[in-house]
Amino acid sequence: METTGAYGGGKAGGAFDPQAFIQKPPVIVRAVCWLFSVIVMGCISAKGWYTNKEDGKEYCVYNNDTNACNYGVGISVIAFVASIAFIIGEYLFEQMSSVKTRKHYVLADMGFSAFWGFLYFVGFCYLSNAWGKTDNPPVGTANNMQGAIAFCFFSIFAWIACALFALQRFRLGADAAFAPAYEVEGAAPSPPGFPAYPGAPDSQPAYSDPPFSHTGNIDYSAPTY
What we know:
Transmembrane segments: 27-50, 70-93, 105-127, 147-167
Strand order of the largest sheet: 1-2
Domain MARVEL: 21-171
Region (Disordered): 193-225
Largest sheet: 2 strands, antiparallel
Number of helices: 5
Distance between the termini: 91 Å
Family: Belongs to the synaptogyrin family.
Membrane topology: Multi-pass membrane protein
Order of helices and strands: HHEEHHH
């Protein structure tokens, strides 16, 4: 039995299978996005700030650029929340009976994921440049700062993968919307022809020879009197 619904989701109202849900590629990649956001937040929050002994103020390890640390933590916090929201959305997606609602969800997923992949690309370039200008970072901070940069880089591909999955779903929905009637799920079959009543003339009579088609010999001689 076909179990695929609109935009690549399951049939609305179908039974929920936890094992099949956690094995879905969009759910797995979204969980990876969540994990990467936690790592970036942890690396910067744990070792990204140090206190200057001369003035007693806190500075960011990335070339004393406070904006660099704030940017890395900021996009990761939002990515953390968004990843959880989209995982919940994957569960609710199967329960959406409206095709229009599913379309809006897929478009939001695709747009947000592509945009966040771009923000992580900007973050990777920003943190890499700031780290390259950092002189004599505090002892014990190098691994964390480099780790945050590395996982910003990995996050680019994770979020782009989410956008591609959403694009694939959108194409499935668009193809279904413009499919011919005989391919659309649940399309009404064409009505059968009506049988002829007994004794009715044949609508397709058998072939008969045309008139004057005899080839026999005919005597055209004049009669004798």
